[in-house]
Structure formats: C-alpha cells, structure tokens
Amino acid sequence: MDRFLVKAAVGGLKRRMEQEQTGGAGLSWRRIQAEGLDCDYTVLFGKAEADEIFQELEKEVEYFTGALARVQVFGKWHNVPRKQATYGDTGLTYSFSGLTLSPKPWIPVLERVRDRVSLVAGQTFNFVLVNRYKDGQDHIGEHRDDERELAPGSPIASVSFGACRDFFFRHKDSRGKHPSRRLAVVRLQLAHGSLLMMNHPTNTHWYHSLPVRKKVLAPRVNLTFRKIRPTTK
DNA sequence: TAGGGCCCAATTGT
DNA sequence: AACAATTGGGCCCT
C-alpha cells in the first residue's frame, strides 16, 4: 500500500473515532480529491451555533489597519480587498510583508472554534488567520499558503461563517496564458458553519482563491487554522 | 446590462 | 540571483 493510501486509511479511522466522541453526531464528510489534492468538507456547526459564533467574531475580532492593510502591486498601492487579523500562541512569530509579527493572543470565540476543529480533525493548531469579506466585492486572488511557515505535512483547517461563497482550486501547472497541463478547476461552496480540511499535499500543487461575487451582499468571516513552525533562534 | 473570467501592468521579498 | 506573490482595470463572452 502506498503511503497516501495508508494516510487516507488512518485519517478515515481517526475521523470515525471522533464521530463517536462527538456524541454520535455523525458528521457527514464530503471527500474532495484530484491529482495531488486532498480535502474533506463538512458542516461543523448547525445554524444556531454558527450564528452565535459569527456574531461574536464580528464583535471581538480586531483587524489590521494602516500599513498592514495595504499592499503594493505593479507600483500602485491598494487597500487589500478584505480585512485580516492573526491570533495564536504567545511567543510565536510569523512573517508578513517583510515584517516579523506576533499574532494577538487567543480570544474565547477563536479558542472555541479551534478546539472543536481539533477534536474532529485530530490535529492541533497554534495559529489562525482571520479573513473578513464584507460582501461579494471583497475577495482574495489565487495563492498558496506559505509552506515555509507551516509545520511540514500539517493540514490547514478553513472554517467559514456568514455568507456562503464560491471557492476555487486551480492546479499550479494549469495557470496563466500557456498552461503546461489542463486540469479542471475544482469549485466548492463554503457554507455558514462549514469546515474545509486542506490536507497535505494540496497546498503544494494547488492554488486557491475566493472570487468576486457581486450578487453576494452579506459578510463572510473565514478562519484558517494552521500549525506554524516555532521560531528558532 | 452586467456579471464573470482571463490577461496584463512592477516591484519587492525570498 | 532567479523566481514568486500581490490587485484592479480592460476586454471579451454570455
């Protein structure tokens, strides 16, 4: 059996055990797979609980302002088309637009979501990036998450609240004017209260984006939990 | 009419 | 030191 199959089997077993631990709630998972792409999707929080968490996120999360909310692209400065914040374990640092920053210390609502994700994913996380999209005009372009910052092989857990948004994966060799390969775009919708587990090696082969959707009028808050490497010096 | 998808424009950091 | 990452606007298609 190759190591991917072994990993899948272990993941499946873990998941089954945790479903039992969650009181037999029996989360139903959707497996999303393509060449080098391995994700699991479920709705983690029912509407009432998701509503409550969303409200608390809206009340408590403090987003970057000023220079940290701007970016230079092709010589022109822009406000990033979303709001961002980072929270995590004390003592951690990460790099962001050429700076070394510390995440803000965890707040209760983020710990609550983190702990639920840890339970069902069988993984721990020491960091979360919060992205707030005020409406369908807010978006994020195609990118991969910075792997040098991540613990090798660790998954990224993406939890969504608020407006349902389309979400795309595009293979790294299928981008640009002259793609060397033509793999289909993988399209998902990320619903209120949902969890998308992006398992290794998804992030090494596939870019992801949240496209503009002009018909969407409501805000969405997304939490991506990660395990980032402790800073060594 | 307008939403959506694709391409293009420089500079900076790694 | 080669290469990757970042956004908005213009064009085209439906």
TrEMBL record:
<feature type="binding site">
    <location>
        <position position="224"/>
    </location>
    <ligand>
        <name>2-oxoglutarate</name>
    </ligand>
</feature>
<feature type="binding site">
    <location>
        <position position="208"/>
    </location>
    <ligand>
        <name>2-oxoglutarate</name>
    </ligand>
</feature>
<keyword id="KW-0234">DNA repair</keyword>
<feature type="binding site">
    <location>
        <position position="133"/>
    </location>
    <ligand>
        <name>2-oxoglutarate</name>
    </ligand>
</feature>
<keyword id="KW-0223">Dioxygenase</keyword>
<dbReference type="GO" id="GO:0035516">
    <property type="term" value="F:broad specificity oxidative DNA demethylase activity"/>
</dbReference>
<feature type="binding site">
    <location>
        <position position="131"/>
    </location>
    <ligand>
        <name>2-oxoglutarate</name>
    </ligand>
</feature>
<dbReference type="InterPro" id="IPR037151">
    <property type="entry name" value="AlkB-like_sf"/>
</dbReference>
<dbReference type="GO" id="GO:0005654">
    <property type="term" value="C:nucleoplasm"/>
</dbReference>
<comment type="subunit">
    <text>Interacts with PCNA homotrimer; this interaction is enhanced during the S-phase of the cell cycle. Interacts with nucleolar proteins NCL, UBTF and NPM1. Interacts with XRCC5-XRCC6 heterodimer.</text>
</comment>
<dbReference type="InterPro" id="IPR027450">
    <property type="entry name" value="AlkB-like"/>
</dbReference>
<dbReference type="Pfam" id="PF13532">
    <property type="entry name" value="2OG-FeII_Oxy_2"/>
</dbReference>
<keyword id="KW-0408">Iron</keyword>
<keyword id="KW-0227">DNA damage</keyword>
<keyword id="KW-0479">Metal-binding</keyword>
<feature type="binding site">
    <location>
        <begin position="74"/>
        <end position="76"/>
    </location>
    <ligand>
        <name>substrate</name>
    </ligand>
</feature>
<keyword id="KW-0460">Magnesium</keyword>
<feature type="domain" description="Fe2OG dioxygenase">
    <location>
        <begin position="124"/>
        <end position="229"/>
    </location>
</feature>
<dbReference type="InterPro" id="IPR005123">
    <property type="entry name" value="Oxoglu/Fe-dep_dioxygenase_dom"/>
</dbReference>
<comment type="similarity">
    <text>Belongs to the alkB family.</text>
</comment>
<dbReference type="GO" id="GO:0005730">
    <property type="term" value="C:nucleolus"/>
</dbReference>
<keyword id="KW-0539">Nucleus</keyword>
<dbReference type="InterPro" id="IPR032852">
    <property type="entry name" value="ALKBH2"/>
</dbReference>
<feature type="binding site">
    <location>
        <position position="143"/>
    </location>
    <ligand>
        <name>2-oxoglutarate</name>
    </ligand>
</feature>
<dbReference type="GO" id="GO:0008198">
    <property type="term" value="F:ferrous iron binding"/>
</dbReference>
<feature type="binding site">
    <location>
        <position position="220"/>
    </location>
    <ligand>
        <name>2-oxoglutarate</name>
    </ligand>
</feature>
<dbReference type="GO" id="GO:0006307">
    <property type="term" value="P:DNA alkylation repair"/>
</dbReference>
<protein>
    <recommendedName>
        <fullName>DNA oxidative demethylase ALKBH2</fullName>
        <ecNumber>1.14.11.33</ecNumber>
    </recommendedName>
</protein>
<keyword id="KW-0560">Oxidoreductase</keyword>
<dbReference type="GO" id="GO:0051747">
    <property type="term" value="F:cytosine C-5 DNA demethylase activity"/>
</dbReference>
<feature type="binding site">
    <location>
        <position position="146"/>
    </location>
    <ligand>
        <name>substrate</name>
    </ligand>
</feature>
<feature type="binding site">
    <location>
        <position position="226"/>
    </location>
    <ligand>
        <name>2-oxoglutarate</name>
    </ligand>
</feature>
<feature type="binding site">
    <location>
        <begin position="94"/>
        <end position="96"/>
    </location>
    <ligand>
        <name>substrate</name>
    </ligand>
</feature>
